[in-house]
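Table S2 (continued). Query chain:
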Amino acid sequence: MAKVREVSSWSELMADLRLQYYFWEPTDENVTIHYYGRDERIGWDTHLVCVNGKAALFTDGPLEKPAPRAAVV
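Corresponding output:
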């Protein structure tokens, strides 16, 4: 693997995505993480991080997305 970066929270992942993929305008609403499969080369269950359905990064596990905020009227 050419580059590994450790993130421990959804907010760290979002900060990284906003730096690297700013042109896709990542938000809590358009970023998803899906199970991708086991990579025996590195011994990880990999997950695919997508922005608007476009593959951006791989992780070794899902991160918990914050609950949506309720609108205040």
